[in-house]
Specification:
It is built from 7 helices and 29 strands. It is an alpha+beta fold and 548 residues long. It folds into 3 domains: 146 residues, no CATH class; 170 residues, no CATH class; 148 residues, no CATH class. The strands form 5 sheets. Strands 21, 22, 23, 24, 25, 26, 27, 28 and 29 form a 9-stranded mixed beta sheet that branches. The protein has a 7-stranded antiparallel beta sheet with strand order 15-12-13-17-18-19-20. The chain has a 6-stranded antiparallel beta sheet with strand order 2-3-4-7-8-9. A hairpin with a 6-residue loop joins strand 18 and strand 19. Helix 5 packs antiparallel against helix 6. Keywords: Membrane, Transmembrane, Transmembrane helix.
Length: 548
């Protein structure tokens, strides 16, 4: 802050155009933080135009293009050559674009000086040599998440449906781009137990100002499922977000024409909702893209972008692709939903059929697990139908999660049938078109219908005795891909039973019992002595006595 120093001012509220400051030029760029759409960074690139950069003190103001109506946040003073900041980066949450979290001074010779905003604001100014005292610790993205959660007191929004009322939610509108066609409404929590009813995603009656001014979201939003409503999303798609808690929810809209005035009385249900972002700083964000004109088809899919230009390109692409109506078959929703009735057909042991009936004939779009499915791969874009039959295998009343056969009729002259079936062990990607196996003859539609019926009858007849789902899947695949069902495996020949071998005990290996041996020897000797004595007495009595 010596007399030789010049002042260079950066204005935090000037984010949309370059400007000249002193003899320097300041260029502006806004982008998304790498790897995370939840935070954005505004980069001020300083062109010193040949002047000595060490002679400039950088002062950061919270105003726009003037120091008189603002308050300076921090002064970065008297940098040495290796401390000269060629860029200053200011980090924000997309949920609070007017509240800086981190300011980074980027030099050519050192790592960026990533500093906590509040520490800089409390210090007001310091020599560049002491900037390390304000550095944050650890990964900047982790720091930004924790910093914002503390700033917002860790408040969250719970998304609900049904009759539960919206409570303690604020929102504001933010224009995207310069054509005034695309914009987003950002919902953030305003209380300890904030609740947003899903009806308010598209049809809120709240009036939002154009200058990021927050407004309390009004309760009593219209039910978007009524006929003629432009924007709607079936509760099926919201399964992964219903009852969950989010730091914020963002809805992206496109106007049919550029905005003509800045009145807050804009009716958002007249714009087209294109994209949803559910921001979760604890786990992961969940995003949905719209895929049809009526709003019956959404997919849980994230847009990858790193700045507003790429975001606008993606939004335009979504908007261009939904001009045409489609019939959406949600394979794992068998209860009916917006634009379709689903009728189950009972009576079979090995499989169950569901018939999806639509109001009009349109192209088909298949959804499974809230994502676009490769089932079936219909490349003929002109095929249109109003009825689709979906078949599931079942064992003991328990249905398989994924179908094994899909068929539908499409209008031509005459009406034609298409059918696709699964490939055992390959999931959705292996599905192939069903064809009649006939030699030297042309396949007719009657052949196809008859063959499908015969195959289903064979699956019912052969699969009703199956004991597990994997066996039934294999059998169904064999039946669908061969002329005849696979023969049952031959029973193994009876095995002759042989008499078991006698058990022969192993010879003992115990040591001899010497006491037994000695006892037997002594006993034998005494017996021999007794016999000799007895014989002698007998000989004496019979021989000697007679002679004498």
């Amino acid at each position: 802050m010596g007399a030789r120093q010049s002042y260079l001012y950066l204005y935090l509220n000037s984010k949309d155009k370059e400007y000249d400051e002193s003899v320097c030029k300041v260029e502006f760029k806004k982008s998304v933080v790498k790897g995370c759409i939840d935070f954005e960074v505004v980069t001020y690139t300083i062109k010193y135009n040949g002047k000595d950069p060490t002679s400039f003190d950088i002062y950061i103001y919270d105003s726009k293009e003037t120091v008189y109506n603002g308050y300076y946040i921090f002064g970065y003073c008297s940098p040495r050559t290796h401390q000269v900041a060629n860029k200053v980066e200011v980090y924000y949450s997309v949920l609070a674009p007017d509240k800086p979290l981190v300011i980074s001074f980027v030099t050519e010779s050192t790592n960026p000086y990533n500093c906590d905003f509040d520490k800089l604001k409390n210090a007001r100014w310091d020599w560049a040599a002491y900037i390390t005292e304000y550095l944050i610790k650890g990964d900047i993205l982790d720091y930004l998440k924790e910093k914002y959660k503390k700033l917002n007191l860790n408040k969250t929004i719970e998304l609900v449906d049904g009759n539960k009322e919206t409570k303690d939610v604020k929102g504001f509108k933010q224009e995207i781009g310069e054509e005034n066609k695309d914009y987003r409404i950002i919902y953030i929590p305003n209380g300890k137990e904030s609740v947003l009813n899903s009806n308010c995603l598209f049809s809120s009656e709240t009036k939002f100002d154009d200058k990021n001014k927050q407004a309390i979201v009004q309760n009593g939003c219209k039910d978007p499922s009524a006929k003629g409503v432009k924007n709607q999303i079936d509760p099926y798609y919201l399964t992964s977000v219903k009852g969950q808690f989010f730091d914020g929810i963002i809805v992206y809209f496109a106007r049919d024409e550029g905005k003509k005035d800045s009145s807050p009385n804009e009716h958002h249900d007249k714009s087209t909702a294109l994209y949803l972002e559910f921001i979760d700083l604890r786990k992961k964000d969940i995003c949905f893209q719209r895929k049809d004109k009526a709003g019956c088809c959404w997919v849980e899919e994230k847009i990858e972008y790193d700045n507003d230009s790429k975001l606008l390109e993606s939004l335009k692409k979504i908007n261009d692709n939904i001009k045409e109506e489609v019939n959406t078959v949600i394979i794992d929703n068998k209860n009916g939903y917006n634009g379709v009735t689903v009728k189950p057909e009972d009576g079979k042991t090995a499989y169950k059929k569901y018939t999806y009936t639509f109001e009009k004939e349109n192209k088909l779009y298949f959804i499974f697990g809230r994502k676009e499915s490769e089932i079936p791969k219909i490349n003929e874009g002109s095929l249109k139908t109003s009825k689709v039959e979906v078949y599931f295998l079942k064992i003991k009343g328990r249905e398989d999660e994924q179908p094994f056969l899909i068929s539908f009729e499409y209008k031509e002259s005459p009406e034609k049938t298409k059918a696709y079936h699964f490939k055992y062990g390959f999931g959705f990607e292996g599905w192939i078109e069903f064809e009649v196996k006939k030699k030297d003859e042309k396949q007719t539609q009657e052949d196809l219908k008859k063959e499908i019926k015969n195959k289903l009858d064979e699956i019912e007849g052969n699969g009703s005795c199956s004991t597990d789902l994997h066996t039934l899947q294999f059998m169904a695949y064999q039946i669908l891909t061969t002329d005849k069902p696979p023969p049952a495996p031959a029973a193994p020949p009876p095995k002759k039973e042989n008499r078991p071998d006698l058990y022969v005990p192993d010879p003992t290996t115990q040591p001899p019992n010497w006491w037994l041996i000695i006892g037997c020897s002594v006993g034998g000797f005494l017996l021999l002595v007794a016999l000799v004595v007895g014989y002698c007495i007998y000989w004496y009595n019979t021989t000697i006595k007679l002679l004498t």
